[in-house]
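Homework help board

Subject: predicted structure for assignment chain

Our instructor gave us this sequence and asked us to write out the predicted structure in token form, then describe one feature. I got the tokens but I'm not sure how to describe them. Can anyone check?
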Amino acid sequence: MTAQPPTDRDAWPVMDATAFRAVVRKWITANWSTGITVREWWRRLADAGLTVPTWSSALGGISATTSIQQVIEDELGRIVTVAPPLGGVGVHLVGPVLRQFGAGLQRDRHLRSIVDGTSNWCLLIDEPDGLDDAGSVASLGTRDGAGWAIDAVKMSTDADLADRGLLLVRTTPGSTGRDGLSCFLLALDQPTISVQRLSSGSSVVVCHGATADAHDLVGDAGNGWQVAQTVFAHQQTSLAGRIRRGLVDVPSGEKAGNLERTTGDVLTRTLPRRMTGIERRRS
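My token output:
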């Protein structure tokens, strides 16, 4: 008899792919419905640890291998479902930064909303001068009491739909190159921050006296280059954006994802367009 899906993330049979496939198939049968909202579906996936299975159970996963992650995707795609919220930079770029450098409070505040898809993140690293080297950063973070004042101009993708950004600025006066940089978890819903979407699809994000609290600093002041290197490394290996058969992607975040839609509505509106595109490519 196949084991029942566990109620504890530590109890998934991650060491036995065959047993895991049978159990996760039962879990999907019990939890997937076209009548629930995207928010509720993503909450169920997050609670079970199936959104980020390779993460530790303490951080929202089930301590599984990438082969087990593939089993999950295969089983979700087998019956055609809304995909876990893996698009964008939250899970694939900000998540690894918080796992490696984030303090306990930062992990508690941000990882859950990344995993359950209720937050949407952007990268605020590149600047309008077009230079690829993060050492050319001219944007500034200045100590202001217990927090920081941010004056920055950044180029980003989909910042108009994001509620937070991973920001790289120069915080050591007189520093040059890759020294004196720091990373912050910046809230974008501030009147001192403007976001202008360009015809190219990118956005210009301008911060004039925006604020970041002390607990928004990732790691220590001055270690921003190390944090940025983690982002760059995961950009090279990220699986975000790849086509996964039978899975329909929805953008994460309240603004971008319209999370109160039912999963059935998402499938109804998305699958006909996808099939039309496939037929066009075949013709």
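Reply (TA_rk): Your tokens look well-formed. For the description, you could write something like this. Strands lie at 81-82, 121-124, 140-144, 147-157, 164-170, 181-187, 193-197, 202-212, 217-218, 247-248. That's the kind of observation they're looking for.
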